[in-house]
Amino acid sequence: MSLVPATNYIYTPLNQLRGGTIVNVYGVVKFFKPPYLSKGTDYCSVVTIVDQTNVKLTCLFFSGNYEALPIIYKIGDIVRFHRLKIQVYKNEPQGITSSGFASLTFEGTLGAPVIPRTSSKCFNFTAEDHKMVEALRVWASTHISPSSTLVQLCDVQPMQYFDLTCQLVGKAEVDGASFLLKVWDGTRTPFPSWRVLIQDLVLEGDLTHIHRLQNLTIDILVYDNHVRVARSLKVGSFLRIYSLHTKLQSVNSSSQASLLSLEFHLHGGTSYGRGIRVLPESNSDVDQLKKALESADLTAGQRSDVVCQSEHEDSFPALSSSGSVSLYEVERCQQLSATILTDHQYLEKTPLCAILKQKAPQQYRIRAKLRSYKPKKLFQSVKLHCPKCYSVQEVPHEGNLDIILQNAVTQTPNTKLQNTSLYDSEIWTTKDQGGRKVVVHFVKNNGILPLSNECLILIEVLGIVPLEYVFVMTFTLDDGTGVLEAYLKDSEKFFQIPASEILIDDDLQKSVDMTMDMFCPSGIKIDAYPWLECFIRSYNVTNGMEQQICYQIFDTTVAEDLI
DNA sequence: GTTTAGGATTCG
Description:
Blueprint: E1 21-32, E2 36-37, E3 43-50, E4 56-63, E5 78-89, E6 92-106, H1 127-143, E7 160-175, E8 178-184, E9 204-205, H2 207-213, E10 218-223, H3 225-232, E11 238-252, E12 258-266, E13 275-279, H4 284-294, E14 337-341, H5 352-355, E15 362-374, H6 378-381, E16 382-385, H7 387-390, H8 398-410, E17 423-429, E18 437-443, E19 457-460, E20 468-478, E21 483-490, H9 499-502, H10 506-519, E22 531-543, E23 546-554, E24 556-558
Parallel strand pairs: 4-6, 10-12, 14-22, 21-23
Antiparallel strand pairs: 1-3, 1-5, 2-3, 3-4, 5-6, 7-8, 7-9, 7-11, 8-10, 11-12, 11-13, 14-24, 15-20, 15-22, 16-20, 17-18, 18-19, 20-21, 22-23
The structure holds one DNA strand.
């Protein structure tokens, strides 16, 4: 007689789930919201899993007991759910807690020890389960991209959402809607953290320790629903803060120098799994964190190499007039860029806020995201450009003009460039110029020829200067410190596609469209856009009485692996 | 015994 009931659990593959049943399933966590207090009576957690059938299942878990919900720390964790109810929501199977629901969670890393995390006092775990976990790890290693949101403070970028593993060193009430957490992870941010103003004496924590850590600590403001969680946290505990948002702020000081600081916000709500979870000492990421904390360079945090313009202890280093922030643009913070420089790699990057304050002409290396661009339709960006207009040259002598024009008359227009899907072409034969042929292209809009007053007309012209096909676009660039409009005028260097061939080649059009869509993807926020490394020059433009500074992109090309 | 939320970033 055995005290343990010989239950043989059957696990249903995720592609065989039927509404109205109660099942046991295994899966890899693809998305999750750490447990949070619902608007009802229970804690809630939303978890999406996937298995070898490549079918996803989103599950809703409710429990009055926080511990009873699945103990998931990151995407890629492996879970086993027992007595999961399957219901149908929006015509899709959906999992939900049913009575007797229980879960086990395992690290998803190949080769890591198979240790179940659970609040269940007793649970069934056999050699078969062990095999299931191993098999899912192997499958996930080639089918699930590793979590890219786990980032150390030294690698944070302005305008980013990421998950931070850190230790809490201080906390303070700010107001009803926000709460301050002071944390560190042993590394230093590329820009100094903002300092949230709080009333004296409300900061809880070891003030001597916090002072010693100086700029190794960051200030996080958490809002709304996260306030009560933050308030309950114990100083010294290890945390993972999910979907933490960074924002680079330029602050003007009395000395008129630009100050840059990095803000950290945990916004209200639970979208994208925003939340806070305490990690136990046994967590393998906490082991790593502890090592980073032990080996942290406290002296580096003092920034003794920076000349501060203010004597205030917590002040931010000022930007020099050249706008260089090289001290904080730590090289290890490099992230792959969607465009690269073809020259000037030795130059330091300059934040846009600094460029916007300076006189033209100058040249800068920048790193920014493409907030938007104009025109949206590729055919509108292809223009004929006259290089002579941009260069200072003598107007040809009248005597030479005849010869130049006569030569032009003998050239026959290229018929390959006529009547494409993007424009209609007409050949106009002159009567009094020896029958010289002039080709006029009427550019269509979405395949339709616009009214004559709105139609872009390209004229293959007049013999003196061979006109050059170019892409002309306006890029609105944003690096978190400022926004700047820069022109791109490119014949083939930037896209590595000749502008002269774009109008007659569908594949090239698709390629440029895809590149632009990758720079500036629709439907996602700018934080998820790729970084562009660009070289720009500023120049003065006089428009009547007004003088304006414009910017042009050059010596920049689309990164090779994107072409 | 029911409700909660039902993935899909704030705007401080």
